[in-house]
Design goal:
By secondary structure, the protein is an alpha+beta fold. The protein has three helices and nine strands. It has an eight-stranded antiparallel barrel.
C-alpha cells in the first residue's frame, strides 16, 4: 500500500471513529455493554459473512462483505475484511488486528487499524454451533449480524434482530448486506 493510500485510509478510519462517536444511541441512559458470554476463540476463527450492519462510512454500500479471522500464536487475531462496491467490481480488502482483552471470556476485543486507530468490538451472542454471531460496540452505536453462510432465512434474521433489541440496539438502523446479486433492490438491503 502506498503512503498516499495509507494516509487516505488512516484519515477515513479517523473520520469513521469521529462519526461513530457523534452518532446518537437508542437510549443514551443505558450503560455501556460488558462481556457476558464465553467465546471459544478457535471455533470463532474463520470466515463470517456480514449479513447486516448499522452502516458507517467504511462499510456503507458494500456487497459480498465478509470477515476472516485468524488466531496468531501470540493470541492476537488477524482480521481481513473482504468486500466489493458492486458484484461486478473487484474485491477489496482491509486488514486489522484484534487484541482480545484479558478477563472478558474472549468476548471483548480492541481492533487496531494501521497500528494506531482502535475500536471496541464485543461478541454479544454466538450460536451453540457457531453458525451465527452478533457483534456490537459497547456504546451501541454499531452492530453486525454474522453468519457462516452468505444467506440466512428470514425467521432466523428476525430472531437475531430481536436479540439485538434485547441488548438495547436500535435495530431500525440495521440494514442487510447483499451477499448475492438476487438480493439487490430488495427491501431492507443496502444499495451499492
Amino acid at each position: 500500500m502506498s503512503r498516499r493510500s495509507l494516509a487516505l485510509a488512516a484519515f477515513a478510519l479517523a473520520a469513521v471513529a469521529a462519526l461513530a462517536a457523534c452518532a446518537s444511541r437508542p437510549d443514551s441512559r443505558l450503560p455501556p455493554l460488558t462481556p457476558s458470554i464465553e467465546v471459544d476463540l478457535p471455533r470463532f476463527m474463520g470466515q463470517w459473512y456480514v449479513i447486516a450492519n448499522i452502516p458507517y462510512f467504511g462499510e456503507r454500500g458494500n456487497v459480498a462483505a465478509r470477515d476472516i479471522y485468524t488466531l496468531n500464536d501470540d493470541g492476537e487475531v488477524d482480521t481481513v475484511y473482504r468486500y466489493r462496491k458492486g458484484f461486478d467490481r473487484p474485491e477489496k480488502t482491509t486488514e486489522s488486528t484484534g487484541l482480545v482483552q484479558p478477563g472478558t471470556g474472549n468476548a471483548f476485543w480492541r481492533i487496531r487499524f494501521f497500528g494506531v486507530l482502535k475500536a471496541d468490538y464485543l461478541v454479544l451472542a454466538v450460536a451453540d454451533d457457531y453458525s451465527w454471531a452478533l457483534i456490537g460496540q459497547p456504546d451501541r452505536d454499531l452492530a453486525w449480524v454474522f453468519a457462516r453462510t452468505p444467506v440466512i432465512d428470514d425467521a432466523l434474521y428476525e430472531s437475531l434482530l430481536e436479540r439485538l433489541r434485547g441488548f438495547g440496539y436500535d435495530t431500525g438502523r440495521l440494514q442487510r448486506v447483499p451477499q448475492v446479486p438476487e438480493q439487490l433492490g430488495k427491501p431492507g438491503f443496502q444499495t451499492p
